[in-house]
Amino acid sequence: MSRGKLVRWGVPMAAVAVIGAAIGAGPVIAAVSGDPVLPERSAQQLLAEAAAAVQKDGLPPMSGTVLETASLGLPALPQTASAGSPIALLSGSHEAKVWYGSRDQFRLAVPGPMNETNVIVNGDQTWVWDSQSNTATRVKLAPGAEKTHTAPPTGPSMTPQQAAEQLLSKVGEHSVVSVTSNTQVAGRPAYELVLAPKEAGSLVQDVRLALDGETYVPLRVQVYAKGSAEPAFEVGFTQVTFSAPAPENFAFTPPAGAKVEEKTLGISKDEEKRDFAEGEVKTVGAGWTTVAVLPTPKTPAAPTQGQSEGQGQEAAAALDTVLRSATPVSGAWGSGKLIKTKLVSALFTDDGRLLVGAVTPEELTKAAGAK
């Protein structure tokens, strides 16, 4: 991903590193009995059946309530009143309502203390409604940008489907995998796929992915840090219904008196080429110990494309807070500032690089010296 894309959506680097870790699968068969009882499956069987179910029918129509909880060990971040703010999602618990009718019908509602943010996709119409600012934003694709059938990003993965897609797309040989068949999520029997890194340099203890025993829909994703009894990051359904949502859930008309805006989502192919020319993201290492190396992000003087003024200010304030907690470090590779959380380490070097990964500080400094 180019630096421009990261800045545009204010994607938290911690979420990028946690969810972007490379993982793998093996043929470990579960032998755990209990209630509820599902037919035993090996990891290979479970992944194959889940992929086949999605490939054949896609996700079934559904609706439910999702709870996202993050306890990454970050310093206290600036308070924000924005529902669904990427910065807010980096700590605490946050609830969202999800409706899914088809690939072109999706709605995500993130309530706040005194407001609510909605993302509504209905055919070729995409709206973002922010009740706090009384603003309805119609989202369009940039000229020449490739169309996708997903909602625009709102920060860390807010549905289990989004998180699971990223996890399962990187199956390789870097994990020890096991499966249990006696898990319950949102009152439904589920398989739990447990992926543990083989590499000692990873901060991740394991990732646990719960798949519905009937539909294979991802119901919950949990990421555990080494030495922790509770997940450092979790997103999962607390209630789910597999039936078609009413059509009115996807209908949206800006309320009378609302401010109506229009923004462009994505970048054109020419802009993407320019972004990479300015500074490509490189990677060092493999599997769970992969380290991303990119130019140190600069705080924009004005909101970038796809980013509101409030989001830009929140991101700048959060970055400033995190940097104040950094530890000065140096070595044969040079000098810089180190930040370590339960799941993510980041190194800001004085020569203008940012190295980040779900790895120990030793892995980061090793990557910093790599040619």
From TrEMBL:
The keyword Transcription regulation does not apply. Keywords: Lipoprotein. The keyword rRNA processing does not apply. It comes from the Bacteria. This is Outer membrane lipoprotein carrier protein LolA.
